[in-house]
C-alpha cells in the first residue's frame, strides 16, 4: 500500500518505560543506575541490552507506520486519560501486560500486539513482530485480518463508578488484613472474611486464577495425605486440557475467594464459580477503610470500595478487539 492510499489512517503507538528508563527516573544518571544494580549483584548489561532492543523496535515501528498513515506515540501512563478516535488503529509494543493495560481503555478500536524481543517475552498477546507491520497494516486497513473479540470483566459500583479488567479484577483490602463483605450469587448470600476475591476472564484464566487453583489442589492433596507435586509441565498440560479451551470471547467469568475464613459470623460456601450476563456476583463492602477493587494486577488502577458500597460484577458491556 502506498503512503497516499493509507494517508487517512491514524496509528497510536503505545510504548512503556524500560527497566533502565525507570532506573534513570530514580537515579538520574546511567552511572548511578549501573552502580546500584551491580552492587546488588545483578547484570546491568541486561538492562542496557533490553533498552537498546526496545528503543530500536519502537523506532522501526514508527518509521514503518509513517509510510502508511499518521502516527502518534503514547506513553503507557497516559493511556487511561487518552481519548482514542473511532477510526484509530492501536499498536502496543510489548510485553503482554502493556497489551492488556491498553485493551481495557479501547472501545472497538483494533489493537495490534507487537513483540519487541521474542527471545525475552513469551508474547501470548504479542503475535507479531515489528517486521510484520509492513504487510500486516495494509491487511488491517482493508479489513482482511481476523479480529479476536475479548470479553472483559466489569465491576459496577452503586455510586456510578465502574472498572474494567482484561485479565482479572481483585476485590479486597489494600493491606494484608482480612477483607469483610457480603457476597451474593443468585439467591444465595453470606458474610465472608477472606484475603479477597479474584474474578478472572477467559483470557486471564492462565494467570492469577491458574496459580490460585494450583495452590488449592496442593492443599487438598496434602490434607488427604495423597502426595501431589505440581510441576510446570503438569500445569501446562492442565492448561491445554482445560483452561486452554476457554473461548476469549465467551460471555462468562470465573471467580474464586482467597483463603475464606469460616467462623461464627462468617461462612465459606460461595468460594468458586462461573458468572455471566444473567448470573452476576454482588458484593457489599464492610470495610471502613482500605477497601479496593483493582484490575489486572495494577494496584494504582483501582476504585475505592468502602463500607456500604455494592459492586455488581460480570462480563463488561463491551469487548476488546485484538488483531490476530
Tell me about this structure.
One of its GO terms (molecular function) is NAD+ kinase activity. It comes from Paenibacillus sp. BIHB 4019. Keywords: ATP-binding, Kinase, Nucleotide-binding, Transferase. The protein is of the alpha+beta class and 324 residues long. The chain folds into two domains: 10-145, Rossmann fold (3-Layer(aba) Sandwich), CATH 3.40.50.10330; 151-316, Probable inorganic polyphosphate/atp-NAD kinase, domain 2 (Tumour Suppressor Smad4). The protein is built from seven helices and 16 strands. The strands form three sheets. The chain has a six-stranded antiparallel β-sheet, with helices on one face. The chain has a six-stranded antiparallel β-sheet with strand order 12-11-10-7-14-15, with helices on one face. Strand 8 (179-185) and strand 9 (188-194) form a beta hairpin. It is globular. Mean pLDDT is 88; it is low at 1-5 and 227-244.
CATH architecture of the largest domain: Sandwich
Query: Which structural class fits the helix and strand makeup?
Result: alpha+beta
In CATH terms, the superfamily of the largest domain is: Probable inorganic polyphosphate/atp-NAD kinase, domain 2
User: CATH topology of the largest domain, what is it called?
Assistant: Tumour Suppressor Smad4
Rg of Cα set: 22 Å
Please tally the helical runs, counting DSSP H or I stretches of 4 or more residues.
7
What is the highest CATH level, the class of the largest domain?
Mainly Beta
Overall average pLDDT: 88
Order of strands side by side in the largest beta sheet?
6-5-16-13-8-9
Instruction: Please bin the fraction of helical residues.
Output: 25-40%
Strand content: 25-35%
Cα distance spanning the termini: 20 Å
Number of strands: 16
GO molecular function, one term: NAD+ kinase activity
Keywords: ATP-binding, Kinase, Nucleotide-binding, Transferase
InterPro entries: ATP-NAD_kinase_N, ATP-NAD_kinase_PpnK-typ_C, NAD/diacylglycerol_kinase_sf
GO biological process, one term: NAD+ metabolic process
